[in-house]
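Example protein
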Amino acid sequence: MTFQSSSFIYGGDRLVYDSYGEGDRLLVYLHGLLIDSEINRGIAEALAARGNRVVLLDLLGHGRSDKPHHAAAYRMDTYASQVFALLDELGANDAVVGGMSLGANVSLFAATQQPDRVRGLVIEMPVLERAVPSAALLFVPLLLLVHYAQPLLRVTSAALRRVPTTRFGSLNSFVHAASLPPDSMAALLHGILVGPVSPTQEERSRIAVPALVLAHSNDLLHPFNDAVNLAAQLPNATLVRARSPLELRLRPKRLTDAIAHFLDDAWATPDGADGEARPTLKGTKSESRAGTP
């Protein structure tokens, strides 16, 4: 499926996004930390084929968007404002917002900051309280590495930027992550680590919009229990258990079907401007296996 790439200026920096499909049923889907929107291309194509408009945004410091060298530019809570700037750019009053890992947490922040513009949430692999020790063990050494080994990393990142693009979006996304300039990567990791990771539990409990939570087992950075607790905290959430962290990218049909059905429900009624309530999900507060045999 073809897509259209566009960009806009946010706070003096350029942000790049890709649009798949057409219509008013808008889903903004975000990538994880350091990787970029290429990892979500297959998801966007599948959901656009089901009548949705899917927009993949490269958040600041990622992919084709600008990469400032100061840590203050990179915080999960301020990333949410980039989502709303994208909606303004698209002329959209609201959207379903979602993403994986970093993108999941940014989506939660968006729902707490401007709930009237978030019609629903697709939360894939959230990084919450139980993930903090593992995140520190992974990202603090990485930050020290990119800070103190910049001369070597400049050579390797420059070499990786010359690697040809493949037809595998997920592979391209990880190559792009490894090819980030070390000063930009250091600023990005610093900003993320010192800023808030997610809305507080009290704030999350006030997110009233429908939510679909996708998670899997045996992942220290994205603990399944965090997703279970999040689905319990959100007043109108359904939890779908993935078979692995790769299922949505390698064998996506079962999970993209679940997301497509969620989007059908989320757009089933008006947005409430005329006094009607937003839709609720069947199976709220339950765990679904999305058709597991």
